[in-house]
Design a protein that fits this description.
Layout lengths: L2 E6 L14 E5 L3 E4 L5 H11 L6 E3 L5 H4 L2 H4 L5 E5 L4 H8 L3 E5 L3 E4 L2 E3 L12 E4 L4 E5 L6 H8 L5 E7 L6 H4 L4 E5 L5 H4 L13 E3 L1
Parallel strand pairs: 3-4, 4-5, 5-6, 10-11, 11-12
Antiparallel strand pairs: 1-2, 1-13, 2-3, 7-8, 8-9, 9-10
Length: 212
Amino acid sequence: MVEFFVVYDNEARNGFIEGWGFACYIESKRKVLFDTGWDGNILIHNLSLAGIEDFDYIFLSHQHWDHIGGLNHVIDRTSFVVVPKSFSKNLKREIGRKAELIEVEKLKKIDEGLYTTGELGSYIKEQSLIVELDDSFFVVTGCSHPGLDVILETAKGLGYVRGVMGGFHGFSRIDILKNYELVIPCHCTMAKQEILKLENAKECYAGCCFKI
């Protein structure tokens, strides 16, 4: 079983603080913080409330402020930071001073049960996380700038994809999402309310937790 705990989102409940951006803690065979939101103080508050102290990896989807802003507040809690190779040289240098930097370009295995789609897209390059479940895979996205359909097709190269969560941005091909067991639209998803009408969709907010 894998736990997905949203610790930063535009919406929040039960004492968690909302903020524009996204971050999700994933615990399987390894512990991962996917993105860091914008405000590091909000991130620290929400992590503390969730009882989360450290991670094996920090995984950054793309170089936008609302996904990397909190990095400096938590980089001392990990040994490895995974970034797309297209990140700026200056930012990669700063990250490398505080943790071991892992740069990715293509679909690859990061560690046991963890994969990256590699850099996708052209104008805005972005990587998504693919988490191995017992018999399938689950995808976590930052903003889906390359297109959610492109991300999911890439993940299918590993096997059966059970579902996806994260920011879907302007993705509007809602019919495609009916083919998955679980869909969790977060953060920047423009069609969130329409997606939530699907039987397989669940709400996302800082403080929500899914065990899959």
